Amino acid sequence: MYALIETIHAAGLLTCFALLSTSRIGACIRWLSFQGILFGMVPLIIPDDGLTTRTLLMAGGSLVLKGIAFPWILLKLRARANYNREVQPFVSFVMSILCGILILSLSVWLTLQMKPALIHAPFVLLNSSIFLIFVGLFLMISRRNALMQVIGYLVLENGIFVFGVITVVGTPLLVELGVLLDAFVGVFVMGIAIYHITREFGSMDVDRLTELRG
Amino acid sequence: MPASGSLALPVCALILAPMLLGIVNRTKAVIAGRRGPPLLQPYWDIAKSLRRGAVYGEVTTWLFRLGPVVGLATLAAALLVTPFGGVRAPVSFSGDPIVLVGLLALGRFATVLAALDTGSSFEGMGASREVHFAALAEPALLLALATLARVTGSFALTPVYQAITIGAWADALPTFALVAMTLLVITLVENTRIPVDDPATHLELTMIHEVMVLDHSGPDLGLIQYAAALKVWIVGALLVGLVTPIRSGSVWLDGAAMLVGMVLLAGVIGMIESAMARYRLAQVPQFIVAAATLSAVAFIIRLI
Amino acid sequence: MFEFTAALLLLALGGTLAILLHPRAGLCQLAGQIGAVLGSASGLAAALRVLITGDAVSLTGAWHMPGGSLHIEIDVLSAFFLLPVFGLSIVTGLYGRSYLGNGGGFASTASWFHLNMLTAAMALVIAAHDGLLFLLAWEIMALSPFFLVIFDDRKTAVRHAAWTYLAAAHLGTAFLLVLFVLLGSIAGTSDFAAYGAALKNHQALRSSVFLLALIGFGVKAGIVPAHVWLPEAHPVAPSHASALMSGAMIKVGIYGLVRILTLLGTPEPWWGWLLIAVGASSGVLGVLFALAQHDLKRLLAYHSVENIGIILLGIGIGVLGLARGMPLLAVIGFASGFLHVLNHSIFKGLLFLGSGAVHRAAHSLELEELGGLLKRMPWTGTFFLIGAAAIVGLPPLNGFVSEFLLLYAGFLAVLQPAAAVAVAGLIVIVILGLIGGLAAACFAKAFGIVFLGSPRSEEASEAREVARPMRASMAVLALLCIAIGLGAPLAVASLAGVVAGMTGATVGTVSAELAIVTWPLAVAVTVFAFLIAIAALAWALRARRLAVASVRRGPVWGCGYLFPSPKMQYTASSFAQPLTTQFHLLIRNRETLVPPQGYFPADSSYVSDSGDPALRLLFVPTFRWFDRVVTRLNVIQHGHIHVYILYVAATLIALLIWESL
User: Which of A72, B17, B71, C263 is the most buried (most CB within 10 A)?
Assistant: First the structure.
């Protein structure tokens, strides 16, 4: 079981680095979908929980929403704004990767600090969750395209999800569902906003929102 | 740490290495629907070059002639420390990865200076690109070797590769897989294959390694062609040794498995060359850094 | 000890005589040179004796000033750092007279005085075992280079460089002053031994002392971002002075740091981390800045920053090893740092002397105006090539040996179970790999553009080989590069004494630990011998083949273009452009491109400015702000002398009242 967890961890880290170094929005969305499926499996495999209806529901909901539904919505949005398929980073891809390594080191350090307080959580998954949260933030900070902001937000959400699953033994199902619903609404609102931004400005460059200042 | 293997290994490498290039070319030809040159063609090419006379550029000095000689000698020396999977290298000592990297760097420095010696702008261009990519590939190689060292608990190449067994793979699957990916990229970069460089192109503006050796002729060119084959062998052995974890204890069995692995590697290189296009020059550093990242991730996973 | 005092006296005598004999240029030069060479030889003998016997020698003289004492002591650590100082001074002394020639007027004469003073002051700094004496010698050492830098004082750029140097030197001295006042206040006296004892009782102060020493000595050593004076000062000083400054003087900064570390006892782990971080950033940024340069000596100056980074990486690993109780790691880390100190002084001295020869022969150090010098100056070219290969860390030369040790320490750290140590090891390995690759790129550029291809200017095409003494001094250093490279096991084994001084273990223990690396080095040297044999064999076979085949000369491939001109060669800027673009975020070089446009393009141009971002983004704004603030104080500076006297009187009275309260 531990080998499986370690593989999920490694593959999860790779999806983040792929997101950091990919220039096409479409490819990013596919990586995000893969990441969603990967971490959606976490409730099924962490040892103490076992297979209950609750974990199945959590995993299933997460897989459907993050593996299929959100990517599908994002792909639709991208198709609508089909003239702009590049990520448009503020920080170059090579620098993004190097920042990724820095974030990874930081997350390992943070995990080492937090581990004593959270004895139940598997170390590597704790590390993935912290790493995901920071990579999500980094993506939102360093990318210009509004779709990438949504993708960053979803990566962040993946991190929170994993953190929740592994740290809180017996999370109330309602809370989990609430988080998922939150993300769902978030994506919807952002989708609508992006649609309007694209129509108004003819691009998804969030940097141009500064033009709204009076 | 005594001398642990026999000199038979480097001798085999010296004899068999050009065959790898033949396999690469044959694979490409078959995929393209041609019959392709015979597998032994690289040997004939080298022999032909060695027999010929030479033409030297008007401004070149002794350094131009020394370049190919040093390039070949560094690789021949590197064969002494490179294990062949389970087959021990003739010489093994802690820190031999450093010597290996140093030797590769020396060979490259000599080649680059020989290229600059011609004063031709094309060769300057190739030299500039070569040092650029090498500056990134060198830390990537060290990073991969350091990760293997941490997993196997040794930093002499022969014991490291002795310790890469099927059991070790089962134990450290993600780490080994990531390092193998890094080593594959390094194999492509060091040997200037697609998607980094195209050894078959004849457009000077896009070449890297080939444009550096554009003005070498005769025996010098023969040495360069032979050195290129040896380099595929050495860097390839690092990769194949990792992904062929057969350590039976019998030199013949391990060696045979490795040979099969090397042939497959040549086939894979041929397939990559047939299937992929060359990256834009600006994308190559990204490719190398991404590859190095894989090893960094592997190392960090292994910290815990 | 007699040899050491004799050395100081001879240096001072030679320098003074050079000035006194002023109008007779030939005699001046001779006096300066003899003083430098004989004095340094005598000092070298003193240092070698201490290193061989392992016994410290000391001298306490009469001292007629309040505070301080004339306590000079050459222990193994001092003796080791005296090697580059005196060794390099002999070589630069030999070189200097032919380099300066008989022209140059008083500036040329005076430069001997300042050069010898610099050597003597460096020696005194290293030998001083008293805080006050140390600071006095330090100040002389800080001032003499100012006069060497301002050698060609009619040029504005030179005066600017000299002022930059002076400001940086005193910025560092200010921190050292605080450091020694702090140490003096807890110890009660200014003797080094007392400092060490006092620090044992003041554990809380140790980190402040370490930080002050790192900054104060770091400015002298040229760590980023306090490196800005190096690329200003080195290019304008006479080349043999640059060699001495870069090869020996910045090492005195390292000496100071190391000396303070020995006084501090067992270090804290975060000191090691800080040293590794500072070393890594100096190393990488130094070589990146160097890549962007197109003045040969500026380029070499930035490489000094890089090499100081490598030295600090070694010392950092050593400190980390000590702090975490890993003696083997500490020994190998310190050994790599110390060996690199020695190695860098050899190859950097060689490269600066080589650049001086280029300047004499081709009257320019601008890379874009040089080219094809290997044909015209075969000796200088070969020596420069050896220096370049050594600084890049290529086997089988000396640079490889110290980098081997550092990488060995890195691999050793990687194998440790403790995550923090393993990460430190990995950082060292990756950073050193990156530095090595970038340095190779940089020296392929420097050597390739200057010595290979065809000349890019009239002067370069008329260059002639330099005089024999200059060649001889370069030959000595080049041979040392090869000797340390091929005698690596011996060189490393002989570091046992000085490393033992750092780790606090006995020489015997350290020797045993160093034996763990000398054996692999011995095997590596055998591999290199094999390499040389193969190369010789291949060369012989190739020559035999070509003896019977046809060998012609012809034009190189120009893509079908038949009339290439030297202007069409790849230039230094174009060679480095991919890398400088890649790392633009770090080096912040500015480029202006006016591309050719239209079917009949008019003038187009490309300008690249490699001005130092630390200067542009950090120091200039800071000093400008400081200037603005201080200018306000100008109201009390109005020129009425009687009011000034009033100030003095008021201060005096205020102090008297303060004292009597």
Answer: B71
Among C423, C438, C569, beta carbon nearest to B121: C569
Q: Considering the domain boundaries, does residue A213 fall inside one?
A: no
Domain that holds residue C654: 613-660
State the Cα torsion B17-B21-B22-B24 to the nearest 10°. Answer: 130
Rounded Cα distance between A22 and A28, Å, is: 6
| Minimum distance, in Å, between the CA of residue C322 and any CA atom of chain A | 22
C512 is a domain residue: no
ipTM attached to this prediction: 0.96
Q: How far apart are CA C373 and CA C387, in angstroms?
A: 16
> Which carries the bigger pLDDT value, residue A194 or residue C17?
C17
Per-residue pLDDT tens for B164-186? 999 999 888 889 999 999 999 99
Q: At what angle do helices A2-21 and B173-190 cross, to 10 degrees?
A: 40
**Nearest residue on chain A to C423, judged by CA atoms?**
A105
B204 interfaces chain C, CB cutoff of 8 Å: yes
Confidence of residue B2 (pLDDT cuts 50, 70, 90): very low
* Mean pLDDT across B291-296: 91
Question: Domain range spanning residue A82?
Answer: 2-205
Residues C44-66 as b/e (b if ≥16 CB within 10 A, e otherwise) read bbbbbbbbeeeeebeeeeeeeee
CA distances from B132 to B136, B287, C130, C383, C633 (A): 7, 13, 49, 25, 52
Residues 6+ apart with CB under 8 A from A50: none
Tell if the CB–CB gap between B286 and A127 is shorter than 8 Å.
no
Closest alpha carbon within chain B to C516: B94
The total number of structural domains in chain A stands at 1
- Reported as a pLDDT band with limits 50, 70 and 90, residue C635 is confident
**How far is the C-alpha of B262 from the C-alpha of C251, rounded, in Å?**
49
pTM of the model: 0.92
Q: Give domain status of residue A23, yes or no.
A: yes
Selected residue of C288, C411, C412, C521 to mutate for chain B interface (largest B Cβ count, 10 A): C411
Instruction: Indicate the angle between helix axes C398-414 and C419-451, nearest 10 degrees.
Output: 160
Q: Which of A90, A91, A93, A95 to mutate to test the interface with C (most CBs of C within 10 A)?
A: A95
Give domain status of residue C651, yes or no.
yes
Name the average pLDDT for chain A. 80
Instruction: Please report whether residue A31 resides in a domain.
Output: yes
pLDDT above 70 for A206: no
Is A122 in contact with A46 (CB distance < 8 Å)? yes
Per-residue pLDDT band for C603 (boundaries 50, 70, 90) equals: confident
Residue A28 resides in a domain: yes
| Mean pLDDT of all residues in C481-495 | 95
More confident residue, A180 or C458: C458
Q: State how far the Cα of C462 lies from the Cα of C454, in Å rounded to an integer.
A: 12
Q: Is the pLDDT of residue A118 over 50?
A: yes
Q: Count structural domains, chain C.
A: 1
Is residue C623 situated within a structural domain?
yes
On whether the CB atoms of residues C380 and B115 are closer than 8 A, the answer is no
Hey, are the CB atoms on A101 and B304 less than 8 Å from each other?
A: no
Q: What is the DSSP string of A13-55?
A: HHHHHHHHH--BHHHHHHHHHHHHHHHHTHHHHSTTT-S-HHH
What are the helix (H) ranges across B192-282? 209-212, 219-243, 251-275
Residues B267, B232 contacting (CB under 8 angstroms): no
pLDDT bucket at C630, cuts 50 / 70 / 90: confident
Where do we find the tokens 């050896």? C386
Indicate whether C514 belongs to any domain.
no
Burial A67-96 (b: 16+ CB within 10 A, else e): bebbbebbbebbeebeebbebbbebbbbbb
| Pairwise CB contact (< 8 Å): B174 & A7 | yes
